[in-house]
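Key idea: predict the complex, not the pieces.
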Amino acid sequence: MTSTARLPHAFYQRDAVTVARALLGQRLVRRVPREHAPPLRLAGIIVETEAYLGVPDRAAHTFGGRRTARNRSMWRAGGHAYVYFTYGMHHCLNVVADAENEPVAVLIRALEPVEGLEIMRHRRLKARVDTDLASGPAKLCQAMAIDRALDGEDLVTSDRLWIERARRRALPARKISVGPRVGVAYAGPWADQPLRFHIRENPHVSRPR
DNA sequence: CCTCTGATCTTCT
DNA sequence: GAAGATCAGAGGG
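Result:
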């Protein structure tokens, strides 16, 4: 029997590294209302994450504690969404972690699609194979119809975006691969920190160059 | 397999 | 005015 219980507030109220590891194997769900039709339900298992550690973390948008119009959601309590727009065309989804006013978050980097595959294929026409549907932070936002309209969303109460518990316990460490974060070479020593986590041998994980 | 490049525009300096 | 928590396609080996 498949559980549909949402991850509770307390799940997110932990340090970003713990949350980044615990999110692996859980199910991200997007509900999209439609006129004259039942709502769409899109879902994918989280297979890759990165932790961003806030004020001291040179790679984080909240480095130095600077608040901007873009990053203000990161100061919210753990369990909210932080969605940003970048490169003039891409959106990326973060899950805010830890306590309110602790501006840390977890970037969701890849999903294994499990519900609404037909819709996702339609939204991702460039993907020749299903392992390319959501194998990157911007790809998954495209597949799941996630944009800035969902910035600041409360994942515990929202009817548009939430995360369900798909596994009872966190994945054992031996099934998680750990390494440096992608695309943050500018961050000095923080670029080398082991803050990227992904499920080992899962074909839906991103393949950065 | 690998490296290089263009796209495209919001955000912040 | 420049850069960016990216992606896709092209070209060469």
